[in-house]
Amino acid sequence: ALTAGIVGLPNVGKSTLFNAITKSQVEAANYPFATISPNVGVVEVPDARLDRLSALFHPKKTIHATFEFTDIAGLVKGASKGEGLGNQFLSNIRLTDAICHVVRCFDDSDITHVEGSVDPIRDIEIINLELIMADLQTVENRLGKIERKAMTNKDKEAMAEVELLRRVKEALEGEKPAQSVEMDKEERLQMKNYNLLTMKPMIYIANMSEEEIAAPQDNAYFKLVKEYAAAHNSEVVPICAKVEEELSSLSKEEKDAFMQEMEMGESGLDQVIKTAYRILDLCTFLTAGEDECRAWTFRKGMSAPQCAGVIHTDFQKGFIRAETYRFEDIDELENEHAIKEAGRLRLEGKDYIVQDGDVLHFRFNV
Length: 366
Ligand code: GDP
Known about the structure:
35% of the residues are buried. The longest helix is centred in the middle third of the chain and has 34 residues, at 120-153. This protein is α/β, with parallel strands linked by helices. The mean pLDDT is 91. The strands form 3 sheets. Strands 2-4-1-5-6-7 form a 6-stranded mixed β-sheet, with helices on both faces. The chain has a 3-stranded mixed β-sheet with strand order 3-9-8, with helices on both faces. Helix 1 (14-23) packs parallel to helix 8 (241-248) and helix 4 (120-153) packs antiparallel against helix 5 (156-173). The protein starts with a strand and ends with a strand. It has helices at residues 14-23, 48-57, 88-94, 120-153, 156-173, 185-192, 220-231, 241-248, 252-261, 268-279, 304-311, 313-317, 327-333, 336-341, and strands spanning 3-7, 40-44, 61-63, 66-71, 98-104, 202-207, 235-239, 282-287, 292-299, 319-326, 346-348, 358-364. The chain folds into 3 domains: 3-47 and 63-116 and 201-279, Rossmann fold (3-Layer(aba) Sandwich), CATH 3.40.50; 131-198, DNA polymerase, domain 1 (Orthogonal Bundle), CATH 1.10.150.300; 301-364, Beta-grasp domain (Ubiquitin-like (UB roll)), CATH 3.10.20.30. Bound molecules: guanosine-5'-diphosphate. Guanosine-5'-diphosphate is lined by residues 8, 10-16, 106, 108, 111, 207-209, 240-242. Residues 8, 10-16, 106, 108, 111, 207-209, 240-242 line the site of guanosine-5'-diphosphate. Residues 129-175 form a coiled coil. Keywords: ATP-binding, Coiled coil, Magnesium, Metal-binding, Nucleotide-binding.
């Protein structure tokens, strides 16, 4: 499953946001494949197209794609040196696909800031330095092992790895993220094996007050975070964690009414999920039938057999073809018979690159 880890200094609103996530959590009965543990919240990926399919097919079950948030406790100043929970948090965060970094952008004299004042850029840099230091340890450990191998065997591959790791180490020592190092495609792939934290895409979550969330651009802290994110190849989403927590305890109808009143187009949590999809290059394909309508996540560029494999490995192994049409076609024509009549049902083979919003039926040998 796709996961994002939530990090941030103490008292910035992480628990408030994580509460909102767990309260919006999917029902385990409908999502038996989701791993649900205390520090994980599994939420549905909002998708109006799936809602529309469901209204057309009246299936027994409608299943949204899911996204997991992991609460990464213990990432405080000095964490990489073993203070606080120390390295325990690192193993949790290494397994995530992206990092959501909650930053305090609200003034409130009743809520102490660990660093004594509200200063989002300073906070960001404190956390990022911890991530950099953790990566430096990882890289140094690996270098220690591989350098010996490269020297004794004159192993070409090992030598190339040493060269790459030294470049990364130099950047980290200069307090720059591994992501800032220029790498070709192959080197990038190799780096994946180390699960470096500063290679992961970062979303800054600017947590601001209820009064300000309707017009985030007017919040001076948010402006700073936005500039910082733009300069560092990252994204930023404004939210009010308190509002998210309130939203999470409402029914769908109440939620819509509340959001209209707050002049919010979309909940902050939904925006975070959408942003994560975008930076991770994720797309959605759909399957539709009387039993089940369902949204599935795949990475941009995946072929039809690879997407079949998202559903089941047997579908990929025995793949024959995909019968497909666009969501827009069923939205307009309202049933599959009409789509066929209109000549819009396509047969696609193993080289077909699946597109976001394709509705697919897979044909396969068992
Ligand atoms: P954590 O330590 O990062 O998990 O932070 P918490 O979620 O426990 O929040 C710390 C305090 O800030 C709590 O008293 C929250 O109620 C409060 N808080 C969180 N978000 C907001 C917000 O948007 N505005 C205000 N005024 N307070 C907030």
